[in-house]
Structure formats: structure tokens, C-alpha cells
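Continuing the series of single-chain predictions for the mutant panel. This is the parent chain; the variants come on the following pages.
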Amino acid sequence: MPVPSSFNDITQKKSVRDHIGWVWYETTFWSPKRWFQDEKNVFIRFGSANYFAVVWMNGEHVTNHTGGHLPFVADVTNVVRYDRPNLLVVALNNTLSQTTIPQGSLYQPTDHSRYPMDFTSQNYNFDYFHFAGIHRPVYIYTTPKIYIDDITIVTSYQTDVAIVSGIIGYTVKIKESLGSNSILDEAFGNCIVAIRDKNGHKVGVARTCSGIIQIPNVHLWWPYLSGPTHEEPAYLYTFEVSWILHGRNIEDDVYRLQFGIRTVESTNTSFLVNGHPFYFRGFGRHEDYNIRGRGVDLVHLVKDHNLLKWSGANSYRTSHYPYAEEILDLTDRLGIVVIDESPAIGLRSTFVQILPVLSTTSVVLTEFGTPLDVE
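Parent structure:
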């Protein structure tokens, strides 16, 4: 079964298309011995798995995850092998109930003259096919023992006569391991921060893990066909941070994140981008394709968004769940405004019934194309 794809939409078997319950994925991979020699942390990252996933590596249980459409990560440093192939197994369940997001129910007909004894069908409260599978890429990646764990960026700007200056507030978190709650401070090392323009030139620097950087004559991020005529749409800077332990002359970890400098606010009558009213021209978009189901396909994505721009659209609503980070990164580069929905379409239970699910499910806030993790 290829990944990413919807397992129930790429075969020609009705039994697979209508399957409700457990499916199993299995693959093998080799790990470079230098990961062990360099004492790297090793992680596995799933872009999404719909809707309940159990993951094992080399026979060891490494993580569970409830809910599709959002990424999850597990530390596999202590279970990965270097002298023989690693076995990765994923058990996936696509059953929807009154305590899942989105919701559904199972129906077992009582008329056994028309249906087999064990016949069960899945009912759900939405108007599209119930795609299921590992829908987004799966990566094995490494970090140093002490690494950059999270970056938060908040942007604004100020105008002084004819000069517009960008203001970048940032916080960088440094961790020792994925499971650790301890965040290292600058008593252990330094964050070296640089802001680069689209040509790679440094336009701002700092030497702290949290602070504010100001950029004169800033290029603001404007939506496609919606900014001032003299402004380039979708201008992106790069936030570059290096972590250097005290007593070392080389970077221990480095991360680069593209971002736009912009403000967003709403009034009783308008939605404002950089203080200017924004008029939404666009669609409610579905991301299913005629071959991969809901699996992320970069070629289809580029074609779809070229069609969006060709039509004169500057925005769309995700239907009906958070989209993949690859899509949000693309829309950020193209200047497309995205209304990123939660997956709670057709929600009918009371809040008390669904609360246990919400307490164990990841939450993502999105400002245009930039995902902000909330723990």
C-alpha cells in the first residue's frame, strides 16, 4: 500500500473501499551507523493518520495517536537498530463514533434476509467520502542531543513618516529530549538569530533566545491581488536560528523558518490585513484526488493552486479539517489566504461527551499559511 494515500480509495475492491475497522501497514528501513556514533536523537514523524494509530518499531510499542489531519512525533532513539533492518508496523482504525472527531456511528441491520449476520456499515455526519489511511508523509529524522524544539514568531509593523519598519517578536525553545519537559536557558548556550530577505541577505540579527528584532524599510506580506500596487505579494523572510553550547565554536543545531511580516485583525464590518480591508474571493476546497484519495500529492497541489490564481481567487476554506503543512507553506508563498477549519464537522454531541477526545488531541492555530503548535 503506497504512502501517502487513502487505502480505501486506490484499489478496485468494494470490500476494501467499504472496510471499517483495523488495517495494518508494515515496512522496513535501514539506519546509518553514524547516527549511533554521533549520539543522535532519532524520531519518527507522521504527517497524519486517519483516525486512530498504534505504532511499533522492532516489536516495541512507541506511540498511539487519536485523530487525523495533524502530525505526531515519537522518540525512537532507544529502539532503532543499526546492524540489521528496522521493522515499522502501524495499526490504523478508521471507525468513527460519538466520541471521535469527526463523529459517526455504526449501523447493524436486523433484516438478515437482506444482510449477512455480521454486516456493519459506518454512518457519519458529513457529505463526503470517509477517506482513511496514512495521508501525509512519514519521516525518520535526527537531532543533536540538545536541539531546537520550537519557534514562536509574532509580527507587526510601525510607520514613521515614509519609513515602514517590521517588528518581529520571537521565542526559541531548546530541549534535551522529546520526552523531557525541561527547557534549557541561556546559561547553557546562545541562540544566534538572523533574519534574511528573499535574496538571502541579513537584514536583522540578535544573540538571545527571546527578543524583538526591528527591520527598517520592511516588505510586508500581502495577499495575492489584494495589496498596494507597488508592493510584491507574498513576500517571505527567513528566520534562521543557531544554538551554540558554551565553550564550542560550531553550531550544535540550526533551523530556518520562512515567514511573512503582517498583521491581521477584524472589526464589526471588516477583516483587515496590514490595516487594509481584505475581500475574500475564493472557494471551499476539498483535497481528494482521483488516484491518491486524500494522500498529499505535490504535483496536484501546484496544479490546483495555479488554477486558483488563474481564476482570480485569493483565498479558500479547508473542507473540513486542518490541511497538511506542505499546503500551508505553498499558500504562504503564493499569497493565498487560508481559513483552516477544525475537523469537528457535523458535531452533534454535547461538549461533555467530546471533552475526553479534545484533551488528548493536538490543536493547531493557523494564521494564513503559518501553523502555530499549541501544546
